[in-house]
Design goal:
The structure holds 2 protein chains of 2 kinds. By secondary structure, chain A is α+β, with helices and mostly antiparallel strands. Chain A has helices at residues 13-28, 38-45, 59-70, 89-110, 117-132, 139-149, 175-192, 212-218, and strands spanning 81-86, 161-168, 196-200, 225-234, 246-249, 251-255, 258-262. Chain B is an alpha+beta fold. The chains are: A alpha+beta, B alpha+beta.
């Protein structure tokens, strides 16, 4: 964290300092709304919302979102996606229940916070499983698994509509990435239409659990399709869509034969 | 999903030791906070709780390993601007966060005149 992380052997640290100085100027003028156009404002103001009103979203707005997704760029124009729209409270509730059961099962094996022998067994299993599923059991989703198992975190946060994105496994190059681009198109379109959204990656827990075949049959998913992501759509309670602070990331800038590190 | 090598897999520690990891941290201004509890409701890690009763209600971070991922949702939700993220989360070893600098609001860049 902080400036101390800039360890760069290139001699161009002067330019970096100059850019930092410029940053301070721009930072003073930040949050003046006329500095961005409408698309940029939509991007900066979008937040993942986790508290929804129970009002159903009108059908035409969901159709407009899907239309924005249809026009996303994809590798080789392969369009390796397919959508499932679920607006049925019974199905969403059943999914939530099944994901909670799956998380309870995971917690039973992986909870190393318990005292005594069970905690030691949990530590042993988590040593093995974090090596098999390093992305799914990253400490952040692991914490989310425990919270869902305890019932503190709802899967869809009470959203009335959920859009599932399926990927075509035979897609050109990297179909997961194309599904992500498509989803981001839909999410930004939704925000510009006054809706709020949240990416729900935990729906893939349905596919990694003993309920896999039940949901494959139920949602009519078969080869070559595979469930990758869900997007919860609804009207937000309160007013969470504001610009906030974010970390700046390192940018290596090659120009005029020099390498400059900026943030 | 990206694949990682076998050696990388072997050196992942289990994050059961707090020395390997620190979570995000938010600072809550006790003067501005009125304890409405909206931040506690929307926090995805349930890292904020409400203490006290009546007018003395106040939001506070969970004292025992709060699962804060410094997402700033609470700061955006707070109507009174009482919350700001003061520390971003970071883990040791395999999941260490690299090449990031301080938190900044959206910047605007103008054409040089």
């Amino acid at each position: 964290m902080g400036k101390a992380t800039v360890i760069d052997s290139s001699p161009i640290t002067l330019a970096t300092k100059m850019e930092e100085g410029m940053d301070m100027e721009t930072q003073d003028r930040a949050l003046q709304s006329e500095d961005w156009n409408l698309v940029e404002k939509t991007i900066f103001e979008r937040r993942s919302v986790r508290w929804y009103k129970s009002d159903q979203v009108p059908e035409y707005l969901v159709r407009r979102m899907l239309e924005a997704g249809r026009y996303a760029p994809s590798a080789g124009n392969s369009q390796p996606w397919k959508f499932i729209v679920i607006r049925d409270k019974a199905i969403l509730g059943e999914m939530e229940r099944d994901v909670q059961r799956t998380c309870k099962l995971f917690r039973f094996f992986l909870d190393f916070r318990r005292p005594g022998l069970m905690g030691k067994i949990g530590w042993f299993y988590s040593q093995i499983f974090i090596r098999i599923l390093p992305h799914e059991l990253h400490p952040i989703p692991l914490g989310a698994i425990f919270l869902i198992a305890e019932g503190k975190l709802k899967l869809f946060h009470g959203a009335p509509t959920v859009i599932m994105i399926l990927k075509d496994k035979r897609g050109v190059s990297n179909p997961d990435l194309d599904c992500g681009i498509c989803g981001q198109n839909m999410v930004l379109a939704a925000h510009s239409l006054g809706l709020s959204t949240c990416w729900i990656g935990f729906v893939s827990a349905l596919m990694k659990s003993y309920v896999r075949f039940k949901w494959l049959r139920r949602l009519h998913i078969s080869y070559p399709y595979e469930l990758v992501e869900g997007i919860a759509v609804g009207y937000a309670r309160g007013n969470p869509n504001k610009m906030v602070e974010r970390e700046t990331h390192e940018i290596a800038w090659y120009e005029n034969g020099q390498r400059t590190i900026t943030y | 999903m990206s694949t990682i090598s076998l050696i990388e897999r072997l050196i992942i520690p289990t994050y059961n030791n707090e020395a390997y990891a620190h979570t995000g941290r938010v600072t809550i201004d006790p003067v501005k906070c009125n304890g409405c509890g909206m931040c506690a409701t929307i926090c995805p890690g349930k890292a904020i709780r409400i203490i006290g009763h009546g007018k003395a209600k106040l939001a506070q971070m969970e004292p025992d390993f709060p699962q804060c991922m410094s997402c700033n949702d609470c700061a955006a939700m707070c109507e009174r601007g009482a919350i700001s993220v003061s520390l971003t989360y970071d883990f040791g070893y395999h999941f260490k966060i690299l090449d990031r600098s301080t938190m900044k609001p959206p910047r605007s860049f103008k054409e040089k005149s």
